[in-house]
Design a protein that fits this description.
Blueprint lengths: L7 E5 L7 H14 L3 E4 L4 H4 L9 H12 L3 E5 L7 H6 L26 H18 L5 E5 L11 H15 L2 H7 L24 H27 L7 E6 L8 H5 L4 E6 L8 H15 L3 E6 L17 H11 L2 E6 L25 H20 L3 E2 L4 E4 L2 H9 L8 H14 L4 E4 L10 E4 L7 H12 L3 E5 L19 H7 L1 E8 L4 E5 L3 E13 L5 E7 L10 E6 L5 E5 L1 E3 L1 H14 L13 E7 L5 E7 L5 E11 L5 E8 L4 E6 L3 H12 L1
Bound molecules: alpha-D-galactopyranose (GLA) and zinc ion.
């Protein structure tokens, strides 16, 4: 539906911050940097509707037209993250209330209640007016809904709305009371209106339902905007929302289902790019819809909000952009074009400074523009080659474990990233997928800490493994249902007990590390260990054992390997240290004969593969380090950025990328050349 004709480069642009006489100069600078797109409008409500019911879009028409003349397309943002002062004054009920009951003050952003019926009406009117006005504008390629959904509201309406949501979900109070075990501490509800929005700790069932409710509130709000847009705009214009990586206030899979395209806002903040961490975020985003994504905002050297808002090294941002592209990104937009003279983000990085002059970083973006001019055409329309490995990410399990860590240092996202890293460091590509995703495409599936399980999830894993797949299932899996109630079975639940051949008899928070020994490694476990009872001896190997510790787990299995059907399943009964994890992953990769497409890449050089519809592959070698790395190119490669032909040992300077495609055979090459010369 939404054909990709190029890889885009651009920035967030706020023409409303500047006199119109300045726009031409901005646009000329953008063009010189190789821009093909800007995102505009997402905070411009007070300009679009300066007083109730009076809409003013002509200024934006002019900006879009001037940009278009320079070959720069527009992504239009709906301005709903910033309801204007007159609206807040006139309709105080739209204002978001924090958990202490205090309404937000006007003068920041995101000060609206996402469920407010009045705000829904005002949103509808605004978004429809925009959609109707801009619908025939051929220079708008897509729409962004709002900006970084990220709040919760504790107003009276939200409380009633949550109660209505629960009524719809559970049907009867008896059912809710049962699922939440409200006999505990006399929590039994006799009327829906007694149920509170959670402030801090609460009944786990209520906490889980609240996260599901917040998800639903944002999904509904996004849906409302999508409907308004789709009444007017052509199919060719896509609709997105800019997500924030691992941000976990709501379930991103459910929100993404409402969108045509997923986009990400990625900021390093303090310090420098951690290549495994950024790679994981790209894979997370690509996994939202199993499609390419946009980098809708990223850091132009520095931010203004980090503890230390240092600038990235020269070349580092360009490298980061290429890494994102390697992982399926189709557009890179910096936030923002020019520093506004006032407003909350004065010291943030930008391409043009307060004086309107290009900052030193502008030069780097220009280089990226040149890169894309050279290599963008062959990469346009390509997707990431399906990786051999998938890691399952589940918001409900995450919430459950965040509410009840049992060990203060056990952090779901950190631990998921620790499972990601050994694959990343070996240049074995991964997908990060939802627990509902199809497992069939993968040779290895990692299921870290999937606390929440249901029969469908368990059966999908069983079918996958028995059909020949390899699964790594970790501790803390299979404890809970979707209401965050303990299952009345021992973990990892009946179906996975059978699949893994183990049953968790007890769990232990670890006040110190415990030594773990195996033929493959001697390492340790931290945070959490389980006493595993192996329920079968058939086709079962005790891969690692705990050493002497607390008397309970001493000498007990820490990692098991079971071979049900045609497959293989590892159960990891503890949180392993990095080295042990790496050894285990190496072992599994060797056993499964999963290797990177280029052997012996030096550390810090990442290999990504994008593939076009004809099956032609492009290898992206990204040197994520500041130092030159010597890389062995496969034979017969054309490099698209330099335009050179290479093979064998090549020096890849720090923070640079090589985009390789196999050269056409000599005969075809000259024939094509001849045709072109005709
Ligand atoms: C977020 C917002 C932007 C801007 C940047 C600054 O990502 O979407 O409007 O505030 O942060 O880093
Ligand atoms: Zn509210």
């Amino acid at each position: 539906m939404h054909g990709i004709d190029k890889l885009h480069l651009g920035a967030a642009y706020y023409p409303e911050h500047w006199p119109q006489e300045r726009w031409a100069e901005d646009i000329a600078l953008m063009k010189a940097a190789g821009f093909t797109v800007v995102r505009m409008g997402e905070f411009a409500w007070s300009r679009f509707e300066p007083e109730e019911g009076r809409f003013a879009f002509e200024w934006m028409d002019r900006a879009i037209a001037m940009l278009a003349q320079a070959g720069i397309a527009t992504v239009m943002g709906t301005p709903t993250a910033a309801p204007p002062a007159w609206m807040v004054q006139c309709y105080p009920e739209i204002v978001r209330v924090d958990a202490t009951g205090r309404p937000q003050q006007f003068g920041n952003r995101c000060h609206y209640c996402v469920s407010s019926p009045k705000y829904h009406d005002l949103t509808r009117r605004m978004v429809e007016a925009m959609a109707e006005h801009f619908k025939d504008n051929p220079h708008i390629i897509g729409w962004q809904l709002d900006n970084e959904f990220n709040q919760e509201c504790h107003c009276g309406h939200c409380r009633a709305d949550f109660q209505a949501y629960l009524k719809e979900k559970f049907g009867t109070l008896e059912e809710l009371n049962l699922r939440w075990t409200t006999d505990y501490w006399s929590q039994t509800y006799s009327d829906w209106t007694q149920i509170e929005l959670p402030r801090g700790g609460h009944n786990p069932g209520l906490m889980m339902a609240y996260r599901q409710y917040v998800t639903e509130a944002y999904r509904r709000y996004a849906h409302l905007q999508v409907e308004c847009l789709r009444r007017f705009i052509p199919q060719a214009q896509w609709i997105t929302h800019n997500l924030m990586g691992w941000f976990g206030l709501y379930d991103h899979y459910r929100l993404s289902a409402e969108l045509d395209l997923v986009s990400e806002d990625y900021y390093v903040g303090s310090g420098h790019v951690d290549a495994a961490a950024s790679a994981a975020v790209w894979d997370l985003m690509r996994g939202m819809k199993h499609k390419n994504f946009w980098l809708m905002e990223t850091q132009p050297a520095c931010v203004n909000w980090a503890p230390v808002s240092n600038k990235l090294n020269k070349g580092e941002a360009r490298m980061l952009a290429w890494q994102a592209i390697g992982h399926g990104c189709d557009a890179v937009l910096y936030w923002q074009w020019r520093s506004a003279l006032n407003g909350q983000e004065q010291y943030h990085g930008s391409l043009v400074d307060q004086a309107g002059l290009p900052r030193p970083f502008y030069e780097e973006v220009t280089e990226l523009g040149d890169d894309l001019a050279a290599a963008g055409a062959v990469l346009a329309g390509t997707r990431v080659e399906t990786p051999p490995v998938a890691i399952v990410n589940d918001y409900e399990s995450r919430w459950s474990l965040e509410h009840q860590r049992h060990h203060k240092d056990f952090d779901y996202v950190t631990e998921l990233n620790r499972w990601y890293k050994p694959f990343h460091d070996r240049n074995i590509r991964t997908d990060i997928i939802s627990p509902e995703a199809d497992l069939a495409p993968y040779r290895v599936v990692v299921v870290p800490y999937m606390a929440v399980i249901d029969d469908a999830r368990a059966l999908r894993l069983k079918e996958y493994v028995e059909g020949g797949g390899t699964a790594i299932i970790t501790c803390r899996t299979g404890f809970k249902d979707h209401c965050d109630a303990m299952l009345p079975t021992r973990p990892p639940g009946t179906i996975l007990q059978e699949l893994t051949g183990v049953e968790v008899e007890e769990y232990y928070a670890l006040d110190r590390t415990v030594a773990v020994s195996a033929a493959l490694f001697r390492g340790s476990a931290q945070y959490w260990a389980e006493k595993l009872k192996t329920t079968t001896s058939a086709r079962m190997v005790e891969t690692a054992r705990f050493e002497s510790f607390n008397g309970w787990i001493d000498g007990q299995p820490a990692v098991t390997t079971h071979l049900p059907g045609r497959g293989l399943v590892y159960y990891i009964g503890c949180v392993l240290d990095d080295v042990s994890m790496r050894k285990l992953v190496d072992h599994i990769l060797t056993f499964k004969m999963i290797r990177p497409a280029i052997k012996d890449l030096p550390p810090g050089v990442e290999l990504c593969i994008r593939i076009n519809d004809a099956g032609q592959k492009f290898l992206l070698l990204v040197n994520t380090t500041p130092d030159t790395r010597r890389v062995k190119f496969p034979p017969n490669q054309h490099e698209y950025i330099t335009g050179g032909d290479y093979e064998g040992d090549v020096n890849l300077p720090g923070y640079t990328v090589a985009v390789l495609g196999e050269r056409a055979p000599a005969v075809a090459h000259s024939a094509a050349g001849a045709a072109a010369a005709d």
